[in-house]
Amino acid sequence: MFPERPARNWPLIIATAGFLAAMTWWSANGIGFSLIELLCNITGGGRLISESWPPDFSFLPRLADPFLETLNIAVIGTVIGGILSVPVAVLAARNLTLGRVVWFTDRNFMNVLRTLPDLFWAMLFATAVGFGPVAGALALSVFTIAVISKLWSESLESIDMGLPEAVRAVGGTWLQMLRFGAVPQAMQTYVSYALYAFELNVRASMVLGLVGAGGIGMILETQRANFEYERVALIVLVVLVAVLIIEEISEAIRSRLA
Amino acid sequence: MSERRLRGQQRIGGATWATFIIAALFVWSMWAIGFSPERLGKLPAQMVEVLGFFWPADMAYGWDKVLPAIAESIQIAWIGTIIGAIFSLPLALLGARTLFPKFARVVKLISATTRAFPEILLAIYFVPIVGLGAFAGALAIGISSIGMLTKLGSEVVDSIDFGPVEAVEAAGGSRILALRYAVLPQVLPEIIAHWLFRFELNIRASAVLGVVGAGGVGGVLLNTLRYRHFDKAAAVLVLTILIVLAIDMVSGEIRRRIIRG
Amino acid sequence: MTEQRGRIRFSRAGVTYPNGTVGMKNLDLEIEPGEFIVIVGSSGAGKSTLLRAVNGLNPLTSGAVEIDGRAVPQREGRQLRELRKRIGMIFQDFRLVKRESVLTNVLIGRLAHVPGWRAMLKLWPQRDRDLAVKALERVGIPEKAWVRASSLSGGQQQRVGIARALAQEPAIILADEPVASLDPVTTHQIMRDLVRINRELGITTLVNLHFLDLARQYGRRIIGLRDGELVYDGSAKTVTDGDFREIYGRDFTEDDLLEEKE
């Protein structure tokens, strides 16, 4: 007996397709998406590229200090954020937290942190502590907490609870349970997430200057405002190379750890 | 046994060294950017003071000016994600080492370069080309999405069961048909989940593009802060947080269902 | 079905893998249309290499294979696909697309028979759907047509694998260790299916088997391979334990038998 083809869930299919189409139409209209405009302006793009080429390498020495500042910001952000993300992650892990209220509060705190992009934090801190690299470092600290704690709390939730429970059973405190039972199991993932956060931070620190939060982005902003595209091109090139190198290094360390 | 202990000791040694180096880098960095301990000490008071300015939020401004700007950010993210999804799908299939060893290298190079650009640098280039506004932002987001989605997609393709591919080819089907029948059904759920996750990230990315004039809510926040209209800035923050949270929740739930289903 | 034949001829065929391993040495072999052949040999003796040379999945490094007088092309391409169209293959690990329906898996056997654009869009002609359904009926699981392949048992999955091969309207079926992942009861069911299909449709069938008792029970002609060379070729009725010892190069143990194992 060959059975009839089972009926498909047409309402769901139609609703999904309708939603996708409507969303795309609304968005394309809203942002003025037009291929014609893109094609007409392609010559402008060519001109821009020819203006950007060759990059003004004589400008390179003046990039050294801001470039170092950028890396400083990324290091500070990763270290402060990396340390603070430990308690945030532990309390957001269902198996390790201190009660439902703490867990619920911390989890929501974490999710709210995650909603705001890096540059929003930079703008806020630039307002609070004034323009400059300190604002950038603080912004990246918060951003780092958001990145690491979410990922790491998930790894903490998947650890084997045998050892932590044993530490508790022999009379260990909650902190001893964490220190000797839980954290060592998830140490490797912590390091790998911290490296990942550092990669993101290097990338982010390059553009923090656009909102006045220090680093190489501040020069980028002034050169762009003056239409010095050979210099803009040089800065973009430097950023690109730096990001790729940091990524390679971090990838190498992570694959060694694994 | 003894070898194991030796290796254990080496690891601890390595970790100590790493901690020391990181601490040194950190102290040097703090000194270099002038982030002194007294500055750190003043920080909490400063934060409390500034936070005070943000209350109460000017919600009337929120409805009039901020909501349309957030809508524009969502539109930018949506179009960017669609551009990314459309172009990354074929690239991800070609980028799978196991299926097309020759193409994989080229594809990897393309995706690595596009990923290395922060979206905002791409936007800096697109603004002069297509003019100030959201269209430039969507292109920037689209291009960096292509890079990231290609990388993630290739990883999904590389992790599948290749038995069915050979079964299709043994039945006389071409490579393309093998992709259609043996690869696509295996990878599509994970790939769609990656698209959705990318959309969540793209909303955040598009939110900041306003800083360089590429549309969206970032420009509004920058202006309100610049003119110290903190009540208006507060409206931007509250609405952004609430809307992004809501989208995250819905999209996350859909992702879980797709992966399970 | 007028064009169905399925004569296979190996002439001085050899396969040397890139790492230097010899998979097949100077093989001369002739198989008549409609024969049911069981190939035995210890692992690494070249059983898979032989099967996969028939449909060009493993290219030869010397000599030739001919099917109905036409040489098997040694490079991927349209000609090879044209040839594979009429050669069904059954695998040890079934090789189904687990997230797709059983019917779609069976239709994979029709891919080479319909225009490419129709296959891409899954716009299957009625004739091909009918053939897929008929193939499922022949293996006795038409009621599973719309079920996801992943929800079937091992034996049922292998039946889908057989149906996929049958949907090709093949002249030859190659079964590479078709029962190695199945329990004894299912093993006998699948072997009986293969024998029945061979008898009813006259499809030349080559089956790789590890278990000697199965080879004796179901084979009509047995081919023994050792280190890539043909060391036995004869009727299953007359094959002796001594012959098996010669093929395996050692005394065989209960690991080589299905029944004693359980």
Characteristics of this structure?
B: 261 residues, mainly alpha, MetI-like fold, 10 helices, 85% helix, C: 262 residues, alpha/beta, Rossmann fold, 6-stranded mixed sheet, 4-stranded antiparallel sheet, 10 strands, globular
Explained architecture:
- The complex is a heterotrimer of chains A (258), B (261) and C (262).
- Chain A starts with 9 loop residues before the first helix and ends with a helix.
- In chain A, helix 7 runs antiparallel to helix 10 (187-207) and helix 8 runs antiparallel to helix 9.
- Helix content of chain A is 77%, strand content 0%.
- With 258 residues, chain A is mainly α.
- Chain A has two domains: 10-50; 58-257, MetI-like fold (Orthogonal Bundle).
- Chain A has helices at residues 10-31, 35-40, 42-52, 64-92, 100-115, 118-129, 133-157, 162-169, 174-182, 187-207, 216-225, 229-257.
- The mean pLDDT of chain A is 88.
- The two termini of chain B are 47 Å apart.
- Chain B has 261 residues and is an all-alpha fold.
- Chain B folds into two domains: 2-35; 53-260, MetI-like (MetI-like fold).
- With 262 residues, chain C is an alpha/beta fold.
- Chain C has nine helices and ten strands.
- In chain C, the strands form two sheets. In chain C, strands 6-7-8-3-9-10 form a six-stranded mixed sheet, sandwiched between helices.
- In chain C, a hairpin with a 5-residue loop joins strand 1 and strand 2 (22-31).
- The longest helix of chain C is centred in the C-terminal third of the chain and has 18 residues, at 184-201.
- The model of chain C has no long low-confidence stretch (mean pLDDT 91).
- Chains in contact: A-B, A-C, B-C.
- The interface between A and B is large, with 61 and 61 residues.
Total strand segments of chain C: 10
CATH class of chain C: Alpha Beta
Q: How would a textbook summarize the main sheet of chain C?
A: 6 strands, mixed
Residue windows where pLDDT falls under 50 for at least 5 positions of chain C: none
Multimeric state of these chains?
heterotrimer
Number of helical regions of chain A: 12
Mean pLDDT of chain C: 91
- The amount of beta strand of chain A, in percent, is under 5%
What count of domains describes the coordinates of chain C?
1
Low-confidence stretches of chain A: none
Q: Largest interface: which pair?
A: A-B, 61 and 61 residues
Q: Please name the CATH topology of the largest domain in chain A.
A: MetI-like fold
User: What top-tier CATH class of the largest domain in chain A fits best?
Assistant: Mainly Alpha
Number of E-type strands of chain A: 0
**Architecture per CATH nomenclature, i.e. the level-2 architecture of chain C:** 3-Layer(aba) Sandwich
Number of helices of chain C: 9
Tally of distinct domains of chain A: 2
**In CATH terms, what is the architecture of the largest domain in chain A?**
Orthogonal Bundle
